[in-house]
Amino acid sequence: MRTYLQRIIRGRKHIFKKACEWTAAVYAVAGLVSLFVSFEGIFPQNAKFLCKLIVGAIILVGIWFLCAIIQSVIVGLMNKKKVVEGPNGKNVFVVYGDLFDPQIVNNQKRYICFAVNRCYDTEVNDRLISSTTIHGIAFNKLYKLNTYTPASLNTAIHSSIHSATLPIVVNRADKPEGNLNRYEVGSYANLSIDANLNYIMLGISWINSNLNAQTSKADFVLAIQKMIEAFDNESQGYPVLMPILGTGRSRAELKEREALEYIIEAFRINQNKITSDIYIVIHESAKNRVSIADL
C-alpha cells in the first residue's frame, strides 16, 4: 500500500493534468449535448445566478475529483507504457519487472542489453565488477549454470566485440586488475547464451587506478546512440530488454529519471532505427522512485 501511494505521489503532476483534460472533455461533451437537450430544468425557475454559479462550481470540482481518483488508480496499477512508436509496428516500452524474466516478452527469443566497462572484465569479485550490479548478476547467472567460467567468458566476449577502432592498452599502474585492452565508448559484444537469449554488452565506463568505474555525460550520450545502432544491426527483429543505463556505479552522475528521459528521447530521434520492440525495464523496487505515467 505504501509503494502504491508513493507511485501516486510521484505521478501527481500527471494525475492533475489528466484530470483537468478529462474534466474539460466532460464539459465539452455536455456542451455538445446541450445543443439538443436543455439543462434549464435542473434548476428551479426562480434560482438566482449566484446559486447556479455555486452549484456549477461544485459539479465541476466533483467531476475533477472523480477523474483524479480514476487516474490515480490507473497510475497506481500501471506497469507498462508505450513511449515511442517506431515503424512496422515496433515500439519502445517502459515496464516494471525483472530484466532477466522471459515472461516480459512472453518467452520469445530475446536480447538483453546491459552496460559493462570498456575492458570487458569478467571477474565478479566486488572490485572489478560488483555482484550487486546488473553486470555482475548477469555474469554470475552464467557461472552458476556452468555455462562459462570467468576465463572462458572472457575469451567468448573478446571474440565477439564490435568496435570501429582498435583498443588502447592501459598500463597496469592505471588499472591494477583485469584486462588491459580498453575499447572505444559504445563498442559492444553480442554473445549467444542459448537458443532463446543473447547478451548485448555495451562498453560505457572505464576503470581507474582505484578500480572505480568512470563515465562522462558525453560518453553516455555517445554510447546510447551507438547502442540504438547496435540494436538495429543485431536484434534481427527479436525484442530487446535493457535497464536504465548511466546510473549507479557507472558514475555518469545522472539520476534515474534523467537517464530514462534521455534514452527515450534518443529513441524518438532515431525512430527509423527501431526494428524490434524495445523494453526499458525498471526493477520493481524502483516503482516508488521512478514514475512511468507521465513519460
Number of strands: 11
Q: How are helices and strands ordered from N to C?
A: HHHEEEHHEEEEEEHEHE
Give the number of helices.
7
Shape: elongated
What is the CATH homology-level superfamily of the largest domain? Leucine Aminopeptidase, subunit E, domain 1
Mean pLDDT reading? 90
Radius of gyration: 25 Å
The CATH architecture of the largest domain comes to: 3-Layer(aba) Sandwich
Weakly predicted, low-confidence segments: none
CATH class of the largest domain: Alpha Beta
**What portion of residues is helical?**
25-40%
Reported for the largest beta sheet, the result is:
9 strands, mixed
* End-to-end Cα distance: 23 Å
Please characterize this protein's 3D structure.
With 295 residues, this protein is α/β, with parallel strands linked by helices. The protein has two domains: 2-77, no CATH class; 80-286, Leucine Aminopeptidase, subunit E, domain 1 (3-Layer(aba) Sandwich), CATH 3.40.220.10. It has helices at 2-10, 12-33, 49-77, 134-144, 150-158, 217-234, 256-269, and strands at 80-85, 91-96, 110-117, 161-162, 168-169, 181-182, 188-194, 197-207, 213-214, 240-242, 278-282. Helix 1 crosses helix 3 (49-77) and helix 6 (217-234) packs across helix 7 (256-269). The two termini are 23 Å apart.
